[in-house]
Amino acid sequence: MPLEQKNAVTADWLVRGENGAQLVPYVAGRHTGYNALHQWLSVEQGQPFTIGFAAPQDLCLFLNNQLIFKADFSANYTLDIARYSKGMAPVEGKYLLTVWHPEQQPNINTFRNQPHDPGLLQEASQRPLSVRMRDYVNQNAFIVFMLLIGLLYGALRTNFPNDFSGLFRLDSFVRTNALEEGVLVKPIRSLSSLLFLLAFSLTLALLIAAIHTHVQQFQLVNQLFPVSEADITTKVLFYTLLIFVVILLKYLFLKIMGFIFGLEQVVRLQYREFIRSILFLGIFLPLVMLLYLALNTVIPGTILLISNLAVSMVLIVTLLRVFSVVNKKAPVLNLHLFSYLCATEVIPLAIMLKLIVFNF
Hints:
- This protein has 360 residues and is α+β, with helices and mostly antiparallel strands.
- Helices cover 48% and strands 11% of the residues.
- The chain has helices at 81-85, 140-159, 161-168, 170-174, 191-211, 219-224, 232-261, 267-282, 285-295, 300-329, 335-356; strands at 14-16, 23-25, 36-41, 50-55, 60-63, 66-70, 75-80, 95-100, 112-113.
- Helix 5 (191-211) packs across helix 7, helix 7 (232-261) runs antiparallel to helix 8 (267-282) and helix 7 runs antiparallel to helix 11.
- 30% of the residues are buried.
- Pfam families: DUF4271 (PF14093).
């Protein structure tokens, strides 16, 4: 018989049986409709019992049917079970841990035992129901990528000064005829165009990786590309490649939709304005990353809000700019054109906002 583990969470999860009176072993793939999972824990008082886990918003933890934790937002958390077991009466020497979510089955695979670190835990009297401490990842990778972004933009300014000036001057951004100047008139496959897009993709990818501090919070990417939590470099590179490919494929998407709607004449103008807007607005994203690196450990909630607003502003302002420019060529109030813009701009925007901003 294996020795009973004390102050440790195990893989022995339970669910309520069909009659609801007994707990039966949880079987992955079979018990998919259960929003509550349970585990009996042996707690040795006086010793730390720290667990870490990824929690979507509204995930709740109960100990002996008493609420001890509720996730106010999606993040990675740490919790000392031993603290909350004080004053509770054990049942035959054990405590029943319950993990429950109102809308989905909790991801119990993220629950793990952690070495005790008093610096990560706050006094129980300060936060009786929720521990809002994130597992802060090592920021060295973010700093290295920030330096790389700075070098990349510096190289672009040195080697393509006319293109750089044409893209990032405010007066060029507000002039419609600037779409016929500089890098915007070059084929998208030109070296300068690809490098500017790569710089933007890397910048946006870095900010998204900072927002999604742990990859399992981004459920779509976790299903398509199971990246290790700790490998921030892999996450950033993957996001960069994904953003870069999506931007390039958008032109093909616009060509197809333009052919379907019979609006091929606006495709080139629409795509140029899209490229100009995201590149111009993307130059400000490194400032948000600097705020993240400087203040995320102090005011994580505020920094998360600022980061989400920055990404939202880039996407929404780009959408408004595209509508404005296309409207000068053909009235947007035309129902046919309006439907086309909704299909090519509004719906993709809603999807991106859902995946990036409202995923928390």
